Amino acid sequence: MIERLGELEKEALAKVAAAEDVKQLEEIRITYLGKKGPITEVLRGMGSLSEEERPKVGQKGNEVRTSIQSAIDEKNEELEAAALEARLAEEAIDVTLPGRPVRRGARHPLTAVVEEIEDIFIGMGFDVTEGPEVETDAYNFEALNLPKDHPARDMQDSFYVTDDLLLRTQTSPVQARTLETKGGEGPVKIVCPGKVYRRDEDDATHSHQFMQVEGLYVDKNVRLSDLKGVLETFVKQYFGADRTIRLRPSFFPFTEPSAEVDVSCGICGGTGCRVCKHTGWIEVLGAGMVHPNVLEMSGFDPEEYSGFAFGMGVERFAMLKYGIDDIRHFYTNDQRFLDQFKRV
């Protein structure tokens, strides 16, 4: 039996040494060390041996098992190391090749314009205030001197959620809400940026959703000349120091007097061209002195306080500054369009 165990050991070790992969090693282990293997069969015959021979055969059996298992483990490590080396050689990275460029995002042009407008007005002492986009009829219209059935409501075709809730048509409700929180005590000096919604046919110059920045200044002895001074300072910082403004009489329900504000054309310098329709001026925003009714409904005494308000379309200001001819470019997510503003 001892001789037979020695023969099986040599036979197994030879096969282990010749194994080419881990699968063959596993087959050898099962063949020689398994419960149905030849070594196990030899050891089952120990019952016919004398008491003196049994320990010797059992010891030899253990030595053979240990020897074969050690050879298998050693060969397994060798094969795994060789496989890893081959894989590393196959997947080698050429560090001399140029890396793939990482595409970096950038601020959307409308975001950049809003931030620039905010920075200019913050520099003049204004605070930035925001409010809800789903607004009540009371704040969106009534608090702004637009009672129900007022004809001026027809100027803004609205998206109603319920009879009393709608998507705000302007950021002016933020002004009404802010005034209401002050308890009739000024000053109030804010700009309100945000999205607004109106039922409009989308084309090159109109969109059912767009952005506004509105401003409000309420204090004692605020005059129309203050409004003109603030807007002229803003226009010169935004468009350039050579630009000027003019105020034309207009009508808005929440301001009195009201004005349309034009800026001198930057293309022709005011002499007249196709862009300004040969007038030398481009309309940019609406403004006026806060209507006494608006002040009174917000808790301010119109005999003691006065103020001015203005509103501008962000898309229009972006189009004028960067020569964009279609408002829809801002919302179509065309990467070619957006890539032009990576430094904005």
Automatic annotation (TrEMBL):
Catalytic activity, EC: 6.1.1.20
Cell compartments where the protein resides: Cytoplasm
Enzymatic reactions: tRNA(Phe) + L-phenylalanine + ATP = L-phenylalanyl-tRNA(Phe) + AMP + diphosphate + H(+)
Cofactor: Mg(2+)
Molecular function per GO: ATP binding; catalytic activity, acting on a protein; magnesium ion binding; phenylalanine-tRNA ligase activity; transferase activity; tRNA binding
The keyword Cytoplasm appears for this protein: yes
Lineage: superkingdom: Bacteria
Chain segments annotated as coiled-coil in the UniProt record: 65-92
Top EC group: ligase
GO terms under biological process: phenylalanyl-tRNA aminoacylation
Keywords attached to this entry: Aminoacyl-tRNA synthetase, ATP-binding, Coiled coil, Cytoplasm, Ligase, Magnesium, Metal-binding, Nucleotide-binding, Protein biosynthesis
GO CC, alphabetical: cytoplasm
Chief location of this protein within or outside the cell: cytoplasm
Domain Aminoacyl-transfer RNA synthetases class-II family profile: 111-320
Binding site for Mg(2+): 256
Comment on bound cofactor: Binds 2 magnesium ions per tetramer.
Subunit description: Tetramer of two alpha and two beta subunits.
Family: Belongs to the class-II aminoacyl-tRNA synthetase family. Phe-tRNA synthetase alpha subunit type 1 subfamily.
NCBIfam families reported in the protein's UniProt record: pheS
Protein name: Phenylalanine--tRNA ligase alpha subunit
Gene source species: Salsuginibacillus halophilus
